[in-house]
Specification:
Number of strands: 5
Shape: globular
CATH superfamily: Gcn5-related N-acetyltransferase (GNAT)
Number of domains: 1
Helix content: 25-40%
Oligomer: single chain
Largest sheet: 5 strands, mixed
Strand order of the largest sheet: 1-2-3-4-5
CATH class: Alpha Beta
Strand content: 15-25%
Structural class: alpha+beta
Length: about 160
């Protein structure tokens, strides 16, 4: 079952985010905390939205997304930040169900597209996304300013 996350789901979602960081070999970059996640999903000004996949009354997967905008389409869009299903619950249609639910949300808001990133070594995910009709754009590169670089970003712009 796919549903909108509640505050009660947050500890489980947070634990699954940590699992995702391990899976992506990015645990060394994990600095998040549950309090900020709660504020950013359920606070006065939400920055993030969450769906969960349940099986046997247990949250076993999630999708975190936010809204963006395409100036080329002049339409809102959705950026899928995370899609994760626990390994022993994969191949049961839960990842597909999460993505299709996100597709329904996109349709409801009149979105022009849904975007997300995938690691180049994650061939099972790439093939899964392609099977659903997603196009992988190898000519696009992710740009990021984070951590100390973000702290110093303003200083780099001074003339």
């Amino acid at each position: 079952m796919i549903r909108k996350a509640t505050q009660d789901d947050l500890p489980r979602i947070f634990a699954l985010i940590q699992e995702l960081a391990d899976f992506e070999k990015l645990s060394h970059e994990f600095e998040g905390n549950l309090k900020d996640l709660e504020k950013h999903i359920f606070g006065e000004r939400p920055y993030l939205y969450a769906l969960v996949a349940e099986q046997d009354k247990q949250v076993v997967g999630y999708a975190l997304y936010f809204f963006n905008y395409s100036t080329f389409l002049t339409k809102p869009g959705i950026y899928l930040e995370d899609l994760y299903v626990m390994p022993n619950f994969r191949k049961r249609g839960l990842g597909k169900a999460l993505l299709l639910h996100l597709g329904k949300i996109a349709e409801e808001i009149g979105a022009g597209r849904i975007d997300w990133s995938v690691l180049d070594w994650n061939e099972p995910a790439i093939q899964f996304y392609k099977s659903l009709g997603a196009k992988i754009y190898p000519e696009w590169r992710v740009c990021r300013v984070a951590g100390e670089d973000l702290k110093n970003f303003k200083a780099k712009g001074k003339l």
